[in-house]
Amino acid sequence: MKLTLGISPCPNDTFIFDALLNNKIDSEGLEFEYILEDVETLNKMAQSATLDVSKVSYGAVNQLIPNYYILDAGGALGKGVGPLLISNKIQALDSAETNNASVILPGINTTAHLLFIMAFPHIKNKSFLPFNEIEDAVLSGKADMGVIIHENRFTYSSKGLFKLADLGDLWESKTNLPIPLGGILSRRKFDLALNQKINRVIRRSLSFAFENIKTLPAFVTENAQEMNEEVMRKHINLYVNEFSLGLGTSGKSAVVKLLETSLEMLQGPSFSAEEIFID
Predict the structure, then answer these.
(1) How far is CA 276 from the centre of its chain?
(2) What is the torsion angle, in degrees rounded to the nearest 10, for the CA atoms of residue 147, residue 131, residue 128 and residue 68?
(3) pLDDT at position 160 over 70
(4) What is the enclosing helix (H) or strand (E) of 76?
C-alpha cells in the first residue's frame, strides 16, 4: 500500500524516517511517497488534508483533529527544547519599547508562535518567514527580534546574535510538562489497524536509527540546512528522545494541555483526549 508522507528536511525527521524510507526495515507492506518541506508548509498542507501522514507543529493540531489522529511515535517533545527569542543586540524585555518591537517567527501555525503569544501577548508587530531565513533577517535589521527553532538554536551565537528568552520556560514553569513541538499525524479515515501499522513502522525506523547512531545516514546529511555534523548531532540529541519512541503519560498530557491552550487562545474545534491518539 502506497501512502503520502510529509516531513521536514531537519535532522530529527530525516534521522527518524531514514530506515523506513530507504528500505532498511520491514515496512509491513507499506510504501511511502515522501516530500520534504518546512514545517509551516506541512501545517498548511495538513489543513487541506493533502497528505496521508505528516509531521506538523503541535500548535496547529487543534485545526487538524477533524481529519487526523496523532501518532504515538515520531514526534518532538522535551524539556529545555523551547524556541528561542533572539536579537542582534542585548535588550531588556520589560521595557515599554518591547510592545512596539517587530518580531519574525517561523510560521503562524507553529508551536513557536503559540508559545510566543503566551509569553508576549502584547507584541503585535509580527511577520513570518521560513525558519532558516530568520537569523539573517534579524542580522540585517528586518526586525528587532526573531524566534528561532531547529538547528538555529546551535548557530545563532556564532553569528553575533543574542538570546533574549527561551519561550519554553513559561510553559515548563506553569505546567511542569515537556514542550510539545511537533508530532506525526495520520488520516482519521484510515481504519485502526492501518494507523497502528503506520505508527509501528515509524517506531521501528527510529529504533533502527538509534541502534546505528554512530554513523549519520546520507539521508540526514544531504538534507540538513546546516551541514556541520556536530550541529546535526546536537539537533538529533536534543529533539529525538524517549518521547519520539512513545508519548507516554506525560507526553500525552503535554499535548492535550497545549491543544487546550491553543483552543482557548486561537479557537478551534472541541475534542476528546481519548479520540486523538493512536498507539
Answers:
(1) 18
(2) -100
(3) yes
(4) strand 76-78
Q: Which of 217, 219, 209, 216 is nearest to 241 (CA)?
A: 209
How confident is the model at residue 97, as a pLDDT?
65
Distance CA 252, CA 248 (A): 6
Where, residue-wise, is CATH 3.40.190.10 in the chain?
Answer: 2-78+179-278, 84-175
The percentage of the chain sitting over the pLDDT mark of 70, rounded to a whole number, equals: 95
Per the annotation, the verdict on 150 as an active-site residue is yes
The pLDDT value recorded for residue 95 is: 60
pLDDT, tens only, 215-237: 999 999 999 876 789 989 999 99
Provide the CATH topology of domain 84-175.
D-Maltodextrin-Binding Protein; domain 2 (3.40.190)
Query: What number does CATH give the domain 2-78+179-278?
Result: 3.40.190.10
**Within 10 Å of residue 88's Cβ, how many Cβ atoms?**
19
Cβ–Cβ < 8 Å for 3, 29: no
**What span, in angstroms and rounded, lies between the C-alpha atoms of 177 and 251?**
8
Average pLDDT over residues 238-263: 93
Asked if the model's pLDDT at residue 269 lies above 90, the reply is no
Higher pLDDT, 211 or 154: 211
Give the CA angle between residues 47, 75, 156 to the nearest 5°: 95
Please tell me which residue in 113, 122, 150, 235 is annotated as part of the active site.
150
Given CA atoms 214, 150, 41, 109 in this order, what sign does their dihedral have? Answer: positive
Strands (DSSP E) along 133-256, which ranges? Answer: 145-148, 162-166, 179-187
